[in-house]
Amino acid sequence: MMILRLFLKLLLDRDGTNGMLDPWYESKGLKDANQVLAYFAISKLGEAPVDGITDTNPEGLTAAYGKWASAVAGRLNAAGLSCKVLGKEAFEKQMLEKLIWISAFMLVGARHPGATVGAVEKDYRSEVSSLIAELACAAAAERQLVFEEGIEERLCAYSRAVAHFPTAVKEFKWRNGWFYSLSEKAIAAGKPDPCPLHTAWLKELKVV
Predict the structure, then answer these.
(1) Which N-terminal stretch is annotated as signal sequence (predicted)?
(2) Which among 130, 151, 129 has a CA at the least distance from the CA of 140?
(3) Which phi and psi (to 5°) does residue 116 adopt?
(4) pLDDT tens-digit map of 82-131
(5) Fewest Cβ atoms closer than 10 Å to its Cβ: which of 28, 48, 167, 198?
(6) In this predicted model, what pLDDT tens digit does every residue of 58-83 receive, in sequence order?
(7) What are the b/e assignments for 192-205, b being 16+ CB within 10 Å?
(8) pLDDT digits over 7-64, tens only?
(9) Do 67 and 34 form a contact (C-beta atoms < 8 A)?
(10) What's the CATH number for 2-204?
């Protein structure tokens, strides 16, 4: 339990584990590092985490990959949290879905000051749906993979589970920055922007 509490504190200090860390792992020679995709939210230190159990994924969304995945899952399960052990390809898809979730919901929410994650899902569904579709298409093309059907509903269901959380575009390098880098790469090569809506809204908010 002490290890789990330390793990949760590290997640809180890092503002969660939402982000594209693959380039950093590769730069450090850690391409096959053990990873945990934490689909639970912690409002503040000392409070119980809200598990990532949704109406579309009642088994939970948290997942682990790598040599020690089973050990991590066991510790989380012992604390009452769900955790699946996945292979590399399945884990990559879920990691990208989480990246799409944080990038899309935070950006749409930032366009509507004061909007929570739940408000984005409820009141600005058309905006976030368009952005999810755009980012998913770009991510699938970049990584040469196919997402399972129902990605929009899965991400919206998670937003309903953590509806009270505020929105803001931050940790740009690790989140929206990955998608913006795809846009920059395409434009530099004389190709169309794969994420034009994403780029336009980042510029609207003066993030880029």
Answers:
(1) 1-19
(2) 151
(3) -85, 175
(4) 999 999 999 999 999 999 999 999 999 999 999 999 999 999 999 999 99
(5) 28
(6) 999 999 999 999 999 999 999 899 99
(7) ebbbebbbebbeee
(8) 444 443 333 456 777 777 777 887 778 888 988 877 678 888 878 899 999 999 999 9
(9) yes
(10) 1.10.1040.10
